[in-house]
């Protein structure tokens, strides 16, 4: 099947430079969007077609559009970073493209070729590269590729038409205020995903399912909710939007992928970065009781969360029904900060990219 080329139809009236620079001075996260977007259509019997870069604009949808009723929707998140020489590079876009294919397969959607996914992201970043924040801080351009079922009709079946879109948003820190530990509510009666479900797909329904538990966490004074497994309600899985890591001195451990945990790109990258730095890094099951006991004994020295948006965020206080504990002295741990600096160094182009993760724009 042929892959579509992306026709460039840039805006004749992009945002004035002064207004763009004012936004970049304090972008926040997901509040502002660049001048353009990339769209590619898929139609049964025709495949992928009509790739275009066009001005950012609303999407007209019929009230009976498939995605509005049966939630055929997947998305990704990756970042573009300004490099020391002024060029721009994205971090591991091939891995996001492959996960996008896995998500599509799980939701009975067409799989976008990896090269087309990367080409679409490149086209948008190239056109809107003035939106990529300057080198020197943690700011980046966050890319959000997504795909929705666009067939009109109420029959419960995979759609016969889809729309793939990439939009971009300049991003500052996901958690404002610098690197400070977040508090966690470990929910023992809400689950994020079940075995055989969609936990390992990046689809909006998983995030919708997390919102009630997140609200319950907030009501308890916590920043994030931690989910346990759906069968025994004892094994730690992940946060609502981030993977977890446990630090045992010179060893770091992340929960084993079970099919109900999202295979994070940052999660995978940190296994390699940790080994590069001389740490032992492994995947293993960690129970909520073990988390508490190992913290209280001092064996578990640090815990942190990781993801594309937040990069690496230390965990401070943990609360469950009838229990509460604090990691270490409640401040960011040395291993957490070292891993965070090492990963950001690669992404920002100030540390050697041993694994060839950075994809530079031509």
Brief summary of the model shown:
It catalyses: L-leucine + 2-oxoglutarate = 4-methyl-2-oxopentanoate + L-glutamate; L-isoleucine + 2-oxoglutarate = (S)-3-methyl-2-oxopentanoate + L-glutamate; L-valine + 2-oxoglutarate = 3-methyl-2-oxobutanoate + L-glutamate. The protein has 362 residues and is α+β, with helices and mostly antiparallel strands.
Pick out its properties:
single chain, 362 residues, alpha+beta, D-amino Acid Aminotransferase, Chain A, domain 1, D-amino Acid Aminotransferase, Chain A, domain 2, nine-stranded mixed sheet, 8 helices, 18 strands, 26% helix
Main beta-sheet strand count, sense and barrel state: 9 strands, mixed
Q: What portion of residues belong to β-strands?
A: 25-35%
Q: Can you give the helix content as a percent range?
A: 25-40%
The computed structural class is: alpha+beta
Distance from N terminus to C terminus (CA atoms, Å) equals 26 Å
CATH topology of the largest domain: D-amino Acid Aminotransferase, Chain A, domain 1
**Whole-number average pLDDT?**
95
- The CATH superfamily of the largest domain is known as Aminotransferase class 4, branched-chain amino acid transferase, N-terminal domain
State the oligomer.
Answer: single chain
Count of individual helical segments: 8
Number of strands: 18
Order of helices and strands: EHEEHEEEHHEEEHEEEEHEHEEEHE
Family: Belongs to the class-IV pyridoxal-phosphate-dependent aminotransferase family.
Keywords: Amino-acid biosynthesis, Aminotransferase, Branched-chain amino acid biosynthesis, Pyridoxal phosphate, Transferase
Catalytic activity: L-leucine + 2-oxoglutarate = 4-methyl-2-oxopentanoate + L-glutamate; L-isoleucine + 2-oxoglutarate = (S)-3-methyl-2-oxopentanoate + L-glutamate; L-valine + 2-oxoglutarate = 3-methyl-2-oxobutanoate + L-glutamate
Modified residues (N6-(pyridoxal phosphate)lysine): 202
